[in-house]
Amino acid sequence: MRCVSRRPGLVTDRVAPTTEVVEGDVLEPESMIPALEGVDTVYYLVHSMSSSRPFDEMDRRAARFFVDAARAAGVRKIIYLGGLGSGELSTHLASRQEVGRILRASGIPTIEFQASIVIGSGSASFEMIRSLVERLPVMVTPRWVRTRAQPIGIEDLLAYLVAGLDYEPDGGELFEIGGADRISYLDLMDEYARQRGLRRFMIPVPVLSPRLSSLWLWLVTPVYAGVGRKLVDSLRNETVVHDERALEVFPVRPRPAAEAIARALLNEERELAETRWSDELFPERPYGGVRQGSRLVDSRSRRVPCAPPQAFEPIRTIGGKNGWYKGEGLWMARGLVDRLFGGPGLRRGRRDPSQLRLGDAVDFWRVEAYEPDRLLRLTAEMKVPGRAWLQFEVEPSGDGNSTITQTAVFEPSGLLGLAYWYAVWPLHAYVFGGMLREIARAAVRGRPRPAVH
Q1: Where along the chain do the CATH 3.40.50.720 domains lie?
Q2: 76-271 fold
Q3: CA end-to-end span of the chain, whole Å?
Q4: Which terminal residue of the chain, N or C, has fewer Cβ atoms less than 10 Å from its own Cβ?
Q5: What span, in angstroms and rounded, lies between the C-alpha atoms of 397 and 413?
Q6: In the chain, which residues fall in CATH 3.30.530.20?
């Protein structure tokens, strides 16, 4: 597999070892012929909606330049992901479908998949739904949230794209694809709230212009106002499947929207469990940390002149009588508050002062993941308006040195959770920053630092 990027250095470390990353730009035809050389099938997944320039004109030029380069390179098949919709289309959907027509008319056998809302972590539509539901206990809902759609889970969408490899189109063929349900954005928000255990109230209003809606989305979601306006403008169009030939041709049976949402949330749980924060790059630490999906992340690293087993020693013995290395009075106060609200507080301590195993209680934390001399992840059992994790990683960094990475992760539950996180952020910055410094010093000394009360 080959991946074409305008800035290959940004994606080289994010692909499989068998994937080749090359430089190319569909708006620069001379760069595309070498990028496409030797390629049998091309997935065309280009869209310039976030551009400051007229994106429909850019998409049109890009598609025509690409077609010329694909012919010159001898590409045998094109698979394109476009947008579902009919009637008087928004500029966004009209552009998606125009690109499909250009590709299908190229003379190169082409499969165009037209999809509705994609449900998956990272998709603009899903992130918009998530942010609205997580942050707003009461929502004013304009007419566009009641337009019917046929949302498809990201895994089912990928299954269709992969199945296209084995299908030989007769010239240019178009397939409409969608999930098992025909529902609205409002239904999706209700279902997301149900699965997250959030109670939300929707107040309908007869009209709210796309411009006002997009500015509101800009305030409360991670979607840029310009992109949001184009997305909202598209929501006046129903995006449901009318031609179900895709179900006859491809062995894909899309799941219901509720299951797609559940799997998106499950995938995020798995991603959190598998993430090595030591591999992440956070050039800045803004107030409140860095947002990763629905979670807020505060990650920091420190290099120490000792091998990983020695660097991990103060981490392995953290909590209990050894304490938390910084702000012990604050930890004790937090434990008291936790007990007042029915939590375990700090009274549980540790099962063993020097050994850990999965499931062990460590004060008001629980060991969720443990790899000796390498990783400790604690999940909070204290009373908080959300879910919290504290993770430590130790990686060798050459010449007998190690890098210790400490990461606090918080998944807020609604506005109360966000208010809690931002209110205690100054204390977190003081405690967690000092904790990492003291852990590094204890590692260099070769023994954990006793608690100071």
Answers
A1: 76-271
A2: Rossmann fold (3.40.50)
A3: 58
A4: C
A5: 37
A6: 277-445
HSE-up (13 A, CA, CB side) for residue 144: 19
User: Tens-digit pLDDT profile for the chain (453 aa)?
Assistant: 999 998 887 787 778 889 999 999 998 888 998 999 999 999 999 987 655 567 788 999 999 999 999 999 999 999 999 999 887 888 888 889 999 999 999 999 999 999 998 998 777 778 778 777 877 788 777 777 888 899 999 999 999 999 999 999 999 999 999 999 999 888 998 999 999 888 888 888 776 555 555 555 555 555 544 455 556 666 667 889 999 999 999 999 999 999 999 998 888 777 666 666 666 656 566 787 887 767 888 999 999 999 999 999 999 999 998 899 998 889 989 889 888 888 888 878 898 988 998 889 999 999 988 999 999 999 999 888 888 999 999 999 888 899 999 999 998 877 788 889 999 999 988 999 999 999 999 999 875 544 443
CA 329, distance to chain mean position in Å, is 36
Q: Which phi and psi (to 5°) does residue 172 adopt?
A: -110, 125
